[in-house]
């Protein structure tokens, strides 16, 4: 209704925003204003101020490799990513993204100069409003990331690491970063909320810590014999519990624990771990909301460009061009298609959001039964905004995937026993299957379940200091052995004393496998007994 | 409200630093891959850079992750056409499960990693650790080799060399000395005037003040015009002085046998050797001159183009080439100034009796004036000694082997196939402190 009123009050709006493929900054600005009008007045989005940067394809390649951040510290792995991407791009095996958008305030989005004007309009709607709204409003981003501080934090990290390289040698810094990167996925708090980053304080604390170390340095401590030499006494169960309690064990954030408790790390090395940990934490919400984030942005751009066209602001040709790339983006190949590589988050996210709009506006009997709270409500804008703000992929799918959509996509569940020669179809798109398909699909979006659950279970800081990690095995899914051994070597480098990883079945408590690192050869052979 | 920023003009290659770190990290493996690519016979294209593939071990980034080889997995896929619950589908061979991009574990450590090197990166790695030995003769005679050094300030010069700091210091001093009125003073008066003029009703003192102000402003402006802000006498330039620098000059003689006894195979190998040498000199030394000499039963100096592409043929008299070389040195490259190098490639056949003559020329003239003389004998692959290169070799080789004992700056090697060229080349031009005392 609001949109109709606006339309009639704006006779000048029938003038086309642009024609042809060429763009310039004036056209971009006009188009931005038209899109903003729809996004804010009609859809009622709530966004960070936008900063739109036009870059060339080479700069886009650069941006890819520093995980999309405008400032990032130096590390060879980013260079590796760069040469891979560059090779693929030059061979024509892969195109570049139309845009990259950064969860910061102001919200920075990179647009490629090669885009046609129609594509620029699409990208503006998609990134500058769709993603931007999601970043600003979704609870995960609100609780776990600090959009105002992130850019200056990375600025600090970059300088701090460059400073360390100067002070301690590039190679030494690289070793710590390598090890920290290997543990990046285990470097996030999944349940506890991390502290906010306060930049000024951070540097101050850093300096103070260094000064304190320098002042209180006491060479004598080096010569004090450790407890192993003095003869180790057995601890009672109660004492063991007390020890764990004091160290806050078990701890899921390996990087955090090592940073705080490692017996061998220098203060600057701990700071490096903290930087990597903060980086991992910053990206953790993005992992959990890929489907919703892309769905939201795609839904928003689709709505906006159609509205632009209805208002006579863009030509039929521009709309067709936009819809062409839109349908490429939301293309979902079927499982027996050679192009199939899993479920396309753009496709599913967009389809679900549209489905929710449909349920709000024209519900069927089935929808009323499945979604009594939203069916036929009419005001789909508020419903979607509430969903965007309060769900993540897993909860979103488990609440809002409708039977209608399951039928439309013909989703089915297969279960795969690694040892068996067959996979079994467990459920399909029928009355018996809807809930099981939906629950199983939701589970695949649960990052906490798809990533290995590895925790620090025990360590005797006064004794042998062996770090014990436990991998809680669910559904008998084990870790890739070779790589785990490699990662353990990294943990050993950071911890300085032996490290032991045990895979324990979550239900039966049975030990399934064990790996150690940092133990002398003869000991290692009989260790996993 | 939106802020558009045009970043296209920002410096590119933001990732260059990381790229170099990566290359350094994988240096050994890249070097091995480059050597291999070169040995496979693509030397002619070596200058173009290109894709190389290295094992991914040293550059792997391990992480904890699940494998699909154990346990129970559930997956949701779209596009069901015929299945009902309870159907069983046979797994494709390999058992990696359907779909999923995690890949199997078995590939660990064997995957290779493919990427492109630029031309200069490729050549840098290819010619790493190589140099022309003994480049010691330095000469001051070539007066073109001068380097500008800063030498104080001067009153004359070109605008790009203007020293702003000095100029402004002089200017300020002069302006203070001559009491040039400042901008602030003028602006104050102008503001007061504007304020007064904005009023409608002025009393008599104010009217007087207005006239007074006009006079004062006029006076100040006159003074400011008379005393320039920057006067030509203030201006100072950075002065540069050219100082001659000693310069090493080097010339490389490429001697190639193109006689009838050199078959397609031998010619091909000889050319590849010289192409590599050519690339190396171009890449590593800014000013090394190259003289190309081809010989059959007669020898002559030729252009680069002719050296590599012309197809003439005839008998074999090696000494003619050495004669030509001596001649060229005598006329164009005085020994006091020039470091002289020579590389000779031949199949080892020679006109009977000529070998003694060659040895005479080498022993008496050529080796005495050369910093380094490299001889490459190209073997016929059929005649190759299966026990390595310790065999007697051809006529020229036998003759030359005595020379090597007396002259440390002489080296001879055998080449039998394309794969030998690059290793032999490295051996001949390895940096001495790396190659050890033996060579």
Protein topology:
The complex is a heterodimer of chains A (529) and B (439).
Chain A: H1 2-9, H2 25-42, E1 50-55, H3 57-65, H4 76-90, E2 99-102, E3 107-112, H5 117-137, H6 139-144, H7 150-168, H8 170-182, H9 199-216, H10 227-230, H11 237-246, H12 254-261, H13 267-288, H14 290-310, H15 316-329, H16 345-361, H17 365-370, H18 380-390, H19 393-400, H20 403-409, E4 412-417, E5 422-427, H21 434-444, H22 447-450, E6 453-459, E7 467-473, H23 481-495, E8 499-505, E9 511-517, H24 521-526
Parallel strand pairs in A: 1-3, 7-8
Antiparallel strand pairs in A: 2-3, 4-5, 6-7, 8-9
Chain B: E1 3-6, H1 16-25, H2 27-39, E2 50-55, E3 72-77, E4 88-90, E5 112-117, H3 119-126, E6 138-139, E7 146-154, H4 164-177, H5 183-198, H6 204-226, E8 237-244, E9 247-257, H7 264-284, E10 288-295, E11 299-302, H8 304-309, H9 318-332, E12 338-346, H10 354-369, E13 372-378, H11 395-406, E14 410-415, H12 418-429, H13 432-435
Parallel strand pairs in B: 9-10, 9-12, 12-13, 13-14
Antiparallel strand pairs in B: 2-5, 6-9, 7-8, 10-11
Helix pairs in contact in B: 5-6, 7-12, 9-10, 10-11
| Oligomerization state | heterodimer
Number of helices of chain A: 24
The largest β sheet of chain A comes out as: 4 strands, mixed
Largest sheet of chain B: 7 strands, mixed
Task: For this entry, give a set of tags.
heterodimer; A: 529 residues; alpha/beta; 4 domains; 24 helices; 9 strands; disordered C terminus; B: 439 residues; seven-stranded mixed beta sheet; 13 helices; 14 strands; 20% strand
Write up what this structure looks like:
The complex is a heterodimer of chains A (529) and B (439). By secondary structure, chain A is of the alpha/beta class. Chain A has four domains: 2-138 and 289-324, no CATH class; 150-216 and 236-287, no CATH class; 330-448, no CATH class; 452-526, no CATH class. Chain A has helices at 2-9, 25-42, 57-65, 76-90, 117-137, 139-144, 150-168, 170-182, 199-216, 227-230, 237-246, 254-261, 267-288, 290-310, 316-329, 345-361, 365-370, 380-390, 393-400, 403-409, 434-444, 447-450, 481-495, 521-526; strands at residues 50-55, 99-102, 107-112, 412-417, 422-427, 453-459, 467-473, 499-505, 511-517. In chain A, the strands form three sheets. Chain A has a four-stranded mixed sheet. Chain A starts with a helix and ends with a helix. Mean pLDDT of chain A is 83; it is low at 1-13, 227-232 and 521-529. With 439 residues, chain B is an alpha/beta fold. Chain B is 39% helix and 20% strand. Chain B is built from 13 helices and 14 strands. Chain B has helices at residues 16-25, 27-39, 119-126, 164-177, 183-198, 204-226, 264-284, 304-309, 318-332, 354-369, 395-406, 418-429, 432-435; strands at residues 3-6, 50-55, 72-77, 88-90, 112-117, 138-139, 146-154, 237-244, 247-257, 288-295, 299-302, 338-346, 372-378, 410-415. In chain B, the strands form three sheets. In chain B, strands 6, 9, 10, 11, 12, 13 and 14 form a seven-stranded mixed sheet that branches. Chain B has a two-stranded antiparallel sheet with strand order 2-5. In chain B, strands 7-8 form a two-stranded antiparallel sheet. In chain B, helix 10 (354-369) runs parallel beside helix 11 (395-406). Chain B is flat and about 120 Å long. Chain B starts with a strand and ends with a helix. Chains A and B meet through helix 2, strand 1, helix 3, helix 4 and helix 8 of A and strand 1, helix 1, strand 3, strand 4 and strand 5 of B. Strand 4 (412-417) of chain A pairs antiparallel with strand 3 of chain B, so a sheet runs across the interface.
């Amino acid at each position: 209704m609001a949109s109709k009123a606006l339309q009639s009050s704006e006779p000048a709006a029938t003038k086309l925003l642009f024609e042809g493929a060429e763009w310039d900054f004036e056209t971009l600005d006009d188009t931005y204003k038209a899109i903003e009008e729809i996004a804010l007045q009609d859809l009622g989005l709530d966004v960070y101020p936008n900063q739109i940067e036009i870059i060339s394809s080479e700069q886009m390649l650069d941006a890819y490799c520093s995980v999309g951040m405008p400032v990032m510290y130096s590390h060879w792995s980013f260079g590796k990513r760069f040469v891979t991407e560059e090779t693929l791009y030059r061979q024509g095996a892969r195109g570049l993204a139309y845009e990259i958008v950064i969860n910061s305030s102001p919200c920075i989005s990179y647009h490629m100069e090669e885009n046609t004007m129609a594509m620029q309009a699409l990208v503006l709607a998609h990134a500058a409003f769709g993603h931007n709204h999601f970043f600003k409003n979704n609870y995960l981003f609100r609780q776990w990331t600090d959009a105002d501080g992130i850019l200056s934090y990375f600025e600090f990290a970059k300088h701090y690491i460059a400073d360390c390289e100067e002070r301690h040698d590039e190679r030494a810094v690289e070793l710590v970063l390598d090890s920290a990167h290997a543990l990046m996925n285990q470097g996030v708090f999944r349940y506890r909320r991390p502290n906010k980053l306060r930049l000024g304080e951070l540097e101050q604390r850093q300096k103070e810590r260094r000064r304190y170390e320098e002042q209180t340095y006491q060479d004598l401590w080096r010569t004090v014999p450790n407890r192993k030499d003095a003869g180790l006494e057995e601890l009672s169960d109660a004492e063991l519990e007390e020890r764990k309690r004091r160290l806050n064990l078990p701890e899921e954030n390996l990087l955090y624990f090592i940073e705080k408790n490692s017996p061998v790390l220098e203060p600057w090395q701990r700071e490096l771990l903290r930087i990597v940990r903060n980086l991992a934490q910053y990206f953790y919400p993005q992992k959990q909301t890929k489907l919703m984030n892309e769905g939201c942005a795609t839904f928003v751009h689709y709505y906006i460009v159609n509205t632009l066209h209805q208002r006579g602001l863009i030509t039929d040709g521009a709309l067709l061009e936009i819809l062409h790339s839109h349908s490429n983006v939301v293309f979902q190949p079927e499982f027996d298609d050679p192009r199939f590589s899993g479920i396309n988050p753009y496709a599913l996210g967009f389809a679900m959001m549209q489905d929710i709009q449909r349920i709000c506006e024209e519900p069927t009997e089935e929808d009323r039964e499945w979604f009594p709270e939203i069916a036929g409500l009419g005001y789909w804008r508020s419903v979607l905004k509430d969903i965007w703000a309060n769900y993540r992929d897993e909860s979103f799918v488990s609440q809002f995937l409708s039977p209608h959509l399951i039928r439309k996509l013909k989703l089915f569940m297969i279960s795969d026993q690694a040892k068996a020669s067959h996979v079994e179809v467990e459920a399909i798109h029928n009355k018996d299957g809807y809930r099981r398909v939906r629950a199983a699909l939701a589970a695949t979006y649960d990052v906490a379940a798809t990533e290995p659950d590895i925790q620090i279970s025990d360590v005797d800081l006064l004794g042998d200091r062996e770090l014990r990690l436990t991998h809680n095995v669910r559904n008998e899914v084990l870790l890739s052995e070779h790589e785990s051994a490699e990662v353990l070597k990294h943990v050993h480098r950071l911890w300085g004393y032996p490290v032991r990883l045990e895979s324990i079945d979550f239900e039966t408590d049975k030990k399934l496998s064990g790996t150690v690192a940092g133990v002398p050869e003869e000991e290692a052979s009989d260790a996993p007994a | 409200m939106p802020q558009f920023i045009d970043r296209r003009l920002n410096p590119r290659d933001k990732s260059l630093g990381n790229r170099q770190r990566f290359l350094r990290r994988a240096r050994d493996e890249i070097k091995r891959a480059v050597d291999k690519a070169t040995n496979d016979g693509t030397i002619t294209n070596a200058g173009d850079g290109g894709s190389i593939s290295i094992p991914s071990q040293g550059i792997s980034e391990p992480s904890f992750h699940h494998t699909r080889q154990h346990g129970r997995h559930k997956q949701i896929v779209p596009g069901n056409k015929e299945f009902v619950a309870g159907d069983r589908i046979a797994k494709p061979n390999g058992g990696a499960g359907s779909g999923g991009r995690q890949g199997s574990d078995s590939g660990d450590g064997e995957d290779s990693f493919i990427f492109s090197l630029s031309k200069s990166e490729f050549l840098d790695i290819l010619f790493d650790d190589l140099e022309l030995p003994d480049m010691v003769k330095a000469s001051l005679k070539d007066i073109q080799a001068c380097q500008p050094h800063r030498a104080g300030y001067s009153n004359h010069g070109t605008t790009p060399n203007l020293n702003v700091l000095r100029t402004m210091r002089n200017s300020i001093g002069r302006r203070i000395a001559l009491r040039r009125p400042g901008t602030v003073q003028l602006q104050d008066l102008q503001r007061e005037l504007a304020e007064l003029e904005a009023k409608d009703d002025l009393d008599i003192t104010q009217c007087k003040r207005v006239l007074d102000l006009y006079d004062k402003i006029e006076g100040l402006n006159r003074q400011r015009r008379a005393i320039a802000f920057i006067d030509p006498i203030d201006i100072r330039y950075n002065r540069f002085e050219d100082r001659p620098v000693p310069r090493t000059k080097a010339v490389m003689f490429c001697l190639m046998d193109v006689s009838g006894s050199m078959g397609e195979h031998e010619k091909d190998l000889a050319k590849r050797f010289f192409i590599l040498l050519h690339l190396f000199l171009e890449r590593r030394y800014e000013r090394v001159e190259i003289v190309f000499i081809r010989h059959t039963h007669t020898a002559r100096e030729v252009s680069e183009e002719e050296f590599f592409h012309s197809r003439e043929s005839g008998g074999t008299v090696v000494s003619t080439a050495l004669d030509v070389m001596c001649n060229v040195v005598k006329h164009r490259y005085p020994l006091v100034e020039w470091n002289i190098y020579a590389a000779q490639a031949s199949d080892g056949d020679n006109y009977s009796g000529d070998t003694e003559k060659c040895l005479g020329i080498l022993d008496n003239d050529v080796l005495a004036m050369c910093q380094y003389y490299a001889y490459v004998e190209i073997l016929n692959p059929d005649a190759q000694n299966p026990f390595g290169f310790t065999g007697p070799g051809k006529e020229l080789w036998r003759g030359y082997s005595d020379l090597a004992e007396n002259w440390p700056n002489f080296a001879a090697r055998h080449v039998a196939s394309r794969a030998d060229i690059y290793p032999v080349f490295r051996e001949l031009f390895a940096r001495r402190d790396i190659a050890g005392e033996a060579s």
